[in-house]
Specification:
By secondary structure, this protein is an alpha+beta fold. Helices cover 23% and strands 38% of the residues. The chain has one domain: 2,3-Dihydroxybiphenyl 1,2-Dioxygenase, domain 1 (Roll), CATH 3.10.180. An eight-stranded mixed beta sheet has the order 2-3-4-1-5-8-7-6, sandwiched between helices.
Amino acid sequence: MVKLSHIALAVPAEEYEEVKRNLRAILNVSPQEKELPHAKLKVALFKLANATVELLAPTGEGSDIDKFLEKRGKGIHHIALQVDSIADEVERLEREGFVFSVKDYEGAKGGKVAFLHPKSTGGFLFELVEEEY
């Protein structure tokens, strides 16, 4: 079964604190924060009743988020889907002709994640996660 896990928003580093404060007020939830040095990324997770809003900001030049912001500007970065088995879903989707940019990557919660390449999804970035956010 597939369900919505989270929606990720990307912002420049200098806007992170302001956007985090705004989301805290709008969603009425305190975030769980963490840094991912391997990805040059800081993350604030706002857990809601049925999904999570993930705020992303780069901590260094050359990160994937930094590149995304340069190309597209701030906004929705990806939509994450929770699946029973990433390996099974990767296999199934590859049979359907989809291409993955990343198949075995450490996500913000420490578990393995996979990303469908936007070129095979009509320009949208989808993440697959196994664990509940």
